[in-house]
Amino acid sequence: MPTTKLQKIFFAFFTVMITVPLFVIYNLAIEIGGMSNQVFIKSLKIIPVEFVFAIILEILIVGPLSEKIAFSIVNPREEKPYIITTVMICSTIVLMCPMMSFVAAFLFHGITVEFIAQWMQNMVINFPFAFFTQLFFIQPLVRFIFRGAFKNQLNKETQYNISETIQNY
């Protein structure tokens, strides 16, 4: 799990970098009625804009808030790491899905009389996709990349935590 500010930004960046293209392609394919080369062409215009919204939301709002929510549900000192990770992922999805569905409704359709309905529809369509892709594909991949990028730093933190635990006994 990322602990320093740099680690959290790195983690957020890679999560958003993988998530946004998947969701843009997914939503465009649904809107167009299936996958085609047109989906990829249209996605090139939308991905950079959604990336900016997603990274800002993740770093400034969702990341800190999902951590508070997760740690109000589980105690990180008592729970197993996979439980903490799962609760963190679910907390992030619960916050990010409505926010980015709002952004997507605005970008795809603008503010119209049907905006609330389109936003709600986006949430219903995106939530299952977000849940399964984040839990089983995106987060495991990002954690793998994260562990590789911060291997030395994580090893030092682990050694420090073990030494601290031994001293407390």
UniProtKB/TrEMBL annotation:
Q: Which UniProt keywords apply?
A: Membrane, Transmembrane, Transmembrane helix
Q: Does the keyword Oxidoreductase apply?
A: no
Q: Which residues form a coiled coil?
A: none
Bilayer-crossing residues are 9-26, 46-65, 86-111, 123-146
Q: Which Pfam families match?
A: DUF2798
Which protein are we looking at? DUF2798 domain-containing protein
**Lineage of the species this protein comes from:** Bacteria, Bacillati, Bacillota, Clostridia, Peptostreptococcales
